[in-house]
Structure formats: structure tokens, C-alpha cells
What we know:
The protein is mainly α.
Amino acid sequence: MPAAGRDIANGDARFGLALYRSALRMPHVSTMLIGGLVGRLREGGIGLAIVFGVREATGSFTVAGAAAAVFVTSAALGRPVQGRLSSALGARTVLVAASAAHAAGVLVLAACTAAKRPPTVLLVVTAICGLLLPALSAHLRSSWPLVLPHERPTAYALDALTYDVSNTLGPALVALLAQLAGAAAGLVALAACGLTGTLLLLGVPTPPRSRGGTLAGTRRSVLRGAVGAVAGITALVAFAEGSLTVAVPGFGTLHHAAAASGYLLSAFAIGSLAGGFFYGARRWSSRPAARLVVCVLAYAAGLALCATTGDLVVMGAVILLAGVARAPTIATTSLLMDAASRGEAAIEAFAWMSVASAVGASVGQASAAVFAAIDIRLAFLTAGACVAGAALIARCCLWRDNPAATGPTGGARVP
């Protein structure tokens, strides 16, 4: 074991940057961060790229919005299937096949938008691209326990940080390329990023195949018990995030400063990055379920406070503080999913987590749009109430952690 690994295993690494330095010296960690960041640019930017491409091809925002909705829906349907195939056939095999097929599909979509094909063709191709979208985040989150088994809170904090960065850079990349070279250029670039990120991850350890290597071994769904509870928590937390993407612009428009919405969302992202950095820089001795309750209650309180302010500057400060709890919430939820899922079913469990996140965010966006027409404060209050509901689920369903699993590993099992 490398010296850094011995430091982590023995608890010798100090808090703060030293803990990150020790983690980064471990084999595969840098590869996972770089490959995950590059590959997730596709996830962060593909929705905007589809809207730009279809809008340019058809001249209709209605069709573009429908294409984005079709993509999200088909991706949600495809994730659990990919997770189960990964358990049966091997994670690396399914990830590479899905990435190559998805890249080809996106290139076809780019060609169709450039040729201004009919809306029906664009919607069908978009649906196929969604079904083939690789469950990259699920693969990464199921591999972190194999790469950093003794510092899983730090591992999942790093994962949350790279996820936030990719979700920030992806849309920016698409917008820049659309301005410089046209909407199809964004789709081509994201196809290249997704495939490149996957290839960079080929040497990273993956969970084992299910016994027997067939689908029979995973016929029963893993979405039950603690896995289902964590998926429910993920959906509620994602509901809040989806609500913010509509509620914050609505707040800015209400105060005659629509352009300020971007700054407010940036403040939220900065708070999340700061919270995630602090979370991963510390070795926690408390149980993950207890930490999750604290995180989501702090998150809920911040969202509720957003409904009480009518000033843009104050809103910026409040939403930044609310964001501080976001990344720790996501990291702890991933930690609990790792503890809840069996090794051979980890990818399928994390795939369901991705589905729950997508569904929750979509419902949150739709509900916030309805509340914005009535009173924008209702959108923030509803988001806070949903996050508070996540605390209730954690307290009722996940509170009884295995005592033997607590300690430096953050409450997760050690293989």
C-alpha cells in the first residue's frame, strides 16, 4: 500500500488540505476526477445543446423543449436497465458500449439538426440518445469505495465537487460553441467529451459482476429497503434544486432584475462548492444518517429563508448559505447508498439514484413554474418542505446504522 494509503488507513492524515493531498496520491483518484469531469461535461451540457440544436433546426422553442423533455425521460428509463446489465455483464463493458453508442447517436442528432430534419425525426433520435446515455455518475459513485475505501466521505465530496464543476462548465461550453460555430458544434463536442471521459476511466476498478454473470442473479429489483429510502431522499433533494432553477429567475424578474438571476444561481453554486470542500476536508466520526439529517435541515432552513427576503443582495447572501449544505447533502446521500447496496448491485442502486434525481428535478421545475404564477415565495417554501421531508425519511428509515460500520470510513462498509 502506498504511503498515502497507509496514512489514510491509520488515520494519520490531518484535517484540511492534508486529507485531500493524501487522497489524491492514491492510485486511480486523479484519473477518476479527470475522467469524471470530462465525461460529465456531456451530462451537464447535453440538455442545453439539444435545445439549441432543435431550436435552430425547427425555429420552435416548443419543439426544442419537447426534445429536452423526451431526452430526460428516455434517459431516466435507460439508467436502471444499464445498471442491471452492468451487474450481469460487467460495468466496464456496458459503460464503454453505451458511451460509444451514445456518441454515435449524438453525432447523428447533430447531423439531423444541421440538415433541419422534421421534428418527428429529431424527437426520435433524441429519445434514442437518451436511452443510450451512459450511467457515468452511477459508475463513478460505485467505484469510489474501491479506490478510497478508508475515506469515503472525502471520496464522495470530491465526486460532488467535480459534478458541480462539470455542471457549470458544460452549459458554458455549449453556449460558447453555439455562438462561434453553430448549435451542432456543441453536440459534437459533448459527444467527444463523453467518449473521452469514458476511455480515461477504463483502468479504474469497478464493482464485480453478479454471481453467474447473468441477469437471473439480479432479477429482483434493488429498489427496496434502505436503497429505496435513499432514492426517495435523492428525489426530494433534487426537487428543491429543480425548483430553484425556476424560482430564482422568477424572483429576479419580480424585482425587475432578471439578469441578476445568473448571479444568484452562481452564489448558490459557490456555496455548494465551499460546503463540499469543507465536508471532504474533515474526518467525520458521526453516523452518516445523523449527518444527513443535519445537512438537509440546514438546507431546508436556507430555502425557507429565501422566501422571507425581498432584497436581491440579501437573497444572494441567503442562497449562498443555503448552497453550503447542498454538496454535503449529496455526498452523504451517496455514502448511504454505498452502505445500503450490495457490492454486485451497487451500480444498479446508484443508477436508481440518478433516476430519482432526474425525476425529482423535473417535478420541482414544473411545480415552481405553477407557484411562480401565484406567489414566488411558495416555490421556495415548497422546496424547503420537501428537503425537510428528506430529513424525516432519513430519521425513520436510515437511523439504525450498523455500529460496526461507523468510524473513519464515515459509516460505510469496508470491503
